[in-house]
Automatic annotation (TrEMBL):
This is Asparagine synthetase B. Residues 1-20 form the signal peptide. Keywords: Signal.
Length: 425
């Protein structure tokens, strides 16, 4: 039998329903700090509260249940938010579900555990910094997203299994010390780098730094193949694949390992082992600040014309690339690095181009799957500094809180938190 609720209890229930609300963090041009908005969402997930990533809705907005604590945190971090009734939020979900709308609602379930592959030594005398910064660690710190650092020994000891997401710091995995020899071989920081890497190789049972780095690269490949998420920028992109292709082949000149290059090195490369690139030519001049023909150098664009366009994917059919390209703009200002852009002719057909400079015929942002896991390669060094040089001061992200280029990094960080959907294509 149906029984009516007591009048007082009915008032309590109605009041509770009326107060039920959602925090919406808009990610369109109205957002005051796009980068810290990711940190807020990560913080909510770390508090065991699920969140929504509203793909292509107002620039890829976030939403989660309202609480006074979450509201205070948004105010503290300077992130714009809206408190909306649950009825309105349900209406937004209905709008997103419309098959005529290129939108999707992705549930974020758990904050990923993040590892940054970076050395623990300091190059520059009298300071606590290296002679270059790293965009990922800068934005993680600015957004207040926690991470841990690991390096060669930890990777070789199979500690990657403890993490959901791995970033490869600005690194040379070929063992050529960034090919800085011609310009910096007399610099104290360079000599320390070489000594540190050689000591690290010996401590892990390797005769050469190139052999140490190859061991690391193979461990990372195992990690990705087993379901890990790997993100790399700048020289960590092409040097990673070059090391895989050159497995068992000496591609380093005497400046870097004490003996010469294998004369048949180019012919012995095995492109079946690489993640993203194939059919590239090694740079044979050991003093050239370049690894191979993967990097589009020289580039047929001026700084004023240097922009790349993000592809517009179908949110409901291709949620993964849609997540990775969420932004409040579709055209992003380019930026330089040791590895700036990828020649299209060297990108494998299995790899998805997420952003490209079409007039220059170059890709800037690519993504692919290896085994059960995923990798993303992002060309360039610092999205907020067009030509960041060795010994330049690190970027102050409080001056760039709405950087579209930095948003792409943070898309990758939240990607592992998404509830997986089977791809429909």
């Amino acid at each position: 039998m149906y029984r009516k609720l007591p009048l007082l209890l009915l008032f309590v229930v109605l009041a509770t329903v009326a107060r039920a609300s959602t925090i919406l963090i808009p990610m369109d041009e109205t957002q005051t700090d796009h980068l810290k908005a990711y940190g807020i969402t990560f913080w909510v997930l770390n508090n065991d509260i699920e969140a929504w990533w509203l793909l292509n809705y107002r620039g890829g907005s976030f939403a989660f249940q309202h609480s006074r604590a979450f509201e205070r945190e948004c105010l503290t971090r300077g992130v714009k938010y809206e408190v909306i009734p649950d009825t309105r939020f349900n209406g937004i979900l209905e709008e997103i579900a419309d098959p005529e709308r290129n939108m999707d609602a992705m549930k974020l379930e758990k904050a990923p555990k993040i590892a940054v592959y970076t050395p623990d030594y300091n190059f520059r005398e009298g300071t606590e910094v290296q002679p270059w910064d790293d965009a990922v660690t800068l934005v993680l710190t600015y957004a207040e997203i926690p991470y841990e650092t690991i390096y060669d020994t930890e990777v070789l000891n199979d500690e990657l299994a403890e993490y959901d997401w791995l970033h490869l710091h600005h690194e040379d995995f070929t063992g050529q010390f960034g090919r800085f020899y011609r310009s910096f071989h007399t610099a104290p920081w360079y000599r320390r780098q070489v000594a540190y890497q050689e000591e690290l190789a010996a401590a892990n049972g390797y005769e050469k730094v190139s052999q140490l780095k190859l061991g690391v690269v193979k461990k990372v490949r195992e990690y990705v193949g087993g379901g890990g998420f790997m993100f790399a920028m700048c020289s960590a992109t092409d040097s990673y694949d070059i090391a895989l292709a050159a497995d068992g082949v000496d591609i380093n000149a005497q400046y870097y390992d004490g003996d010469g290059i294998d004369p048949q090195a180019q012919e012995k490369l095995d492109f079946s082992k690489t993640f993203a690139f194939e059919n590239f030519q090694l740079e044979r001049n050991p003093l050239e600040y370049e690894f191979s023909s993967i990097d589009h150098n020289p580039r047929p664009v001026t700084p004023e014309q240097d922009y790349f366009t993000l592809f517009d994917f179908s949110a409901k059919w291709d949620p993964v690339p849609t997540m990775l390209t969420q932004n409040h703009v579709r055209t992003v200002k380019g930026f330089m690095g040791q590895t700036t852009a990828f020649r299209n002719q060297h990108i494998k057909s299995s790899v998805l181009v997420l952003g490209e400079n079409k007039p220059a015929s170059e890709a800037r942002y690519i993504h692919g799957q290896f085994g059960e896991g995923f990798f993303t390669f992002y060309g360039g060094h610092d999205p907020a500094d067009y030509r960041h040089l060795v010994n330049d001061p690190e970027t102050d992200l409080s001056l760039h809180p709405n950087s579209p280029g930095y948003r792409l990094i943070l898309n990758n960080i939240l990607f592992p938190a998404a509830k997986k959907k089977k791809r429909k294509t």
